[in-house]
Design a protein that fits this description.
610 residues; alpha/beta; Glutamine Phosphoribosylpyrophosphate, subunit 1, domain 1; Rossmann fold; eight-stranded antiparallel beta sheet; seven-stranded antiparallel beta sheet; 17 helices; 37% helix; binds 5-amino-5-deoxy-1-O-phosphono-D-mannitol
Length: 610
């Protein structure tokens, strides 16, 4: 997945500065290579190389580039290694057409050959280059850029968005075919981009787009057309209320630490959303369903695992959970008219999740309920209804506050449903919901305050550890998996998250003297977890505990820092809090290892590819 930005401006002095400033906000989408194509007096100046925006800017002076229009691209490599020649933007056959894409062109191999056979000069191994050649090809035939963009979509198979221009034309064109794209209209400039944060530094007047739509940008307006028949569409800009400063670090050394620290506020904000009028619609959708699926990837799936436990415990409702790519082969034939797929995605653009959305729609069976953070995302627009995570922008690649918000949402829905279907005693439901609303924000803050220094110290003792386990039992199953995912993702370690009672069925053989195993528990499961701890201790392993302070657990910690204790709370809040020390541990561990936790290698925040 990558990020593209195109700008047309009246002021020809600052195109490079604008493109660098705006596309820096897309860094989370890709940081393998960066490029800018700026057009000045009919000539395209194209500079690109391997590295982040700031690195390539320093190397090639991107922000000093001049011109009145241009395109920037940040790449997360899929087709073609992260090299200079594969960096985007690309030229067409000569230096007249320039363009860049986000997404994947699935018929890359065949189409590249077809273009080469037709005499096109294809220079790279990157599929984005084919978008530029496709426009080049159809412009040859029609002499009309908009029509060339429209016809190019017949050749290019896959999910993508691209932006393209011609050296001798003042406009920039773009098309959305399955990957995100949003536009903006400022005073004397217009912008098209893969995501809202890069539009906001320029303007809050935003145009949201649907798949199968094309754009023409001039310095004063953005015109929208339908790909199907070329018809012009009316799409006036809307005022976005998203805070432009949300995507800034606000004094923290990394976005990840800032986002961890935002969780107490997120608890309040998401409970505010859940108390709103739409909640009746979401509860009814779930109640009316014949079968409930919960589909998500990565951290969102770990949150879904915890959600499954809450639905069982509080509402007596079974949930079939699956990771995005698993859904169709595992449950695809079990959908019926009344089934409901809860699709959980921070970005709302994860391809594996949109595939499920499309599968449900194509089969015309059942409904979809999105749980989504990015307002204006495909999932938000296309699901039958959606619950916003209310987190603001999550910039850091590792998910923290959005995972937290998802778990609050599931626990709340489960308690409400349990109250309504009688599975849960009314007063118990009310007490739990009250504790989510009134206690959780304070408890989350107390957890951050209490475990900050502990996790920092603990991380130092782990710097030479390359391999560890993180185990949970019952409610902490998904929490342990999430902790392990964080450590893998930003510490480049092997850290496996699994069910603690399963550990003895094989993995226990890895334990030798001082081998570290993290146990995550609630107070109601610690009696069982102590059995699993003993099995590790008996083999000389080092045990690190995450949970409330309990006498029965004390004997199993050798050092103060090996017990990451969360504050005393309603036991059903334990799993919501237990994740926080794991997030902080992974953060400090990563920083100690010299990794930038916001931008772990090989990854990207939003995965719009299969
Ligand atoms: O945007 P999504 O919630 O659909 O993203 C899913 C995963 O890619 C994401 O949670 C990923 O696992 C995180 N980077 C983990 O921290």
């Amino acid at each position: 997945m990558c990020g593209i930005t195109g700008i047309v401006t009246l002021d020809s002095d600052n195109i490079g500065e604008l493109l660098v400033k705006c596309s820096r906000k897309l860094t989370y989408r890709g940081y393998d290579s960066v490029g800018v194509a700026a057009v000045r007096e009919g000539k395209v100046d194209l500079r690109k190389d391997v590295g982040t925006v700031d690195e390539v800017d320093r190397l090639l002076g991107l922000s000093k580039m001049r011109g009145d229009r241009g395109i920037a691209q940040l790449r997360w490599a899929t087709y073609g290694a992260p090299t200079k020649v594969n960096a985007q933007p690309h030229f067409g056959c000569d230096e007249v057409f320039y363009g860049a894409h986000n997404g994947n062109i699935h018929n890359y191999v065949e189409y590249k050959q077809e273009l080469i056979d037709a005499g096109h000069k294809v220079r790279s191994e990157n599929d984005g280059e084919l978008c530029v050649h496709a426009v080049d090809k159809y412009y040859e035939q029609t002499g009309d850029m908009l029509e060339a963009v429209r016809l190019s979509t017949q050749d290019l198979k896959g999910a993508f968005a691209y932006t393209v221009g011609r050296a001798d034309q003042a406009e920039i064109y773009a098309v959305k075919m399955g990957s995100s794209l949003v536009a903006g209209v400022a005073d004397g400039a217009t912008i098209v981009s893969s995501d809202l944060p890069s539009v906001l530094p320029l303007t809050s007047n935003v145009i949201y787009l649907a798949d199968g739509e094309m754009l023409v940008l001039t310095h004063d307006k953005v015109r929208v057309y339908r790909v199907e028949d070329g018809k012009k569409l009316e799409r006036p800009p809307q005022r976005s209320t998203v805070d432009v400063h949300a995507a800034e670090k606000g004094g923290y050394p990394h976005f990840m630490l800032k986002e961890i620290n935002e969780q107490p506020q997120i608890a309040k904000d998401v409970m505010g959303v859940l108390a709103g009028a739409d909640n009746e619609e979401w509860l009814k959708m779930i109640e009316d369903s014949s079968r409930l699926y919960l589909v998500a990837c990565g951290s969102s799936h770990n949150a879904g695992i915890l959600g499954t436990y809450y639905f069982n415990r509080l509402a007596g409702m079974p949930v079939y959970h699956a990771i995005g790519g698993q859904f169709e082969p595992m449950y695809g034939n079990t959908l019926d008219d009344e089934s409901l797929c809860i699709l959980v995605s921070q970005s709302g653009e994860t391809k594996d999740i949109l595939n499920v959305l499309n599968h449900v729609r194509d089969a015309n069976l059942g409904k979809t309920l999105g749980v989504v953070n990015v307002i204006g995302s495909t999932l938000m627009f296309q699901a039958d209804s959606y619950i916003p995570m209310a987190c603001g922008y999550e910039v850091s690649v590792p998910a923290t506050k959005t995972y937290f918000s998802q778990t609050v949402i599931f626990s709340y829905l489960a308690a409400k449903l349990g109250e309504r279907n009688g599975h849960l005693d009314r007063s118990e439901a009310k007490t739990f919901i009250r504790s989510l609303k009134d206690d959780l924000p304070k408890l989350a803050q107390a957890t951050i305050d209490r475990t900050g220094i502990l996790t920092k110290n603990l991380a130092r003792t782990l710097v030479n550890v390359k391999d560890l386990y993180c185990l949970g039992y019952g409610f902490t199953d998904g929490v342990a998996r999430e902790g392990a995912l964080k450590i893998k993702e930003i510490c480049y370690n092997h850290c496996e998250g699994m069910y603690s009672s399963e550990f003895k069925h094989g993995p226990l053989s890895i334990v030798t003297r001082d081998y570290p195993v993290i146990f995550v528990t609630t107070t109601e499961d610690s009696w069982m977890v102590t059995n699993h701890i003993n099995e590790v201790r008996a083999r000389g392993g080092r045990t690190i505990i995450v949970g409330e302070r309990e006498d029965r657990l004390e004997p199993y910690v050798d050092a103060e820092g090996d017990y990451l204790s969360v504050p005393v709370s309603n036991v059903l809040l334990n799993p919501l809090l237990d994740v926080i020390p794991l997030q902080m541990l992974s953060y400090f561990f990563s920083v100690d290892l010299g990794v930038n936790p916001d931008l772990p290698r090989n990854l990207s925040k939003t995965l719009t590819v299969d």
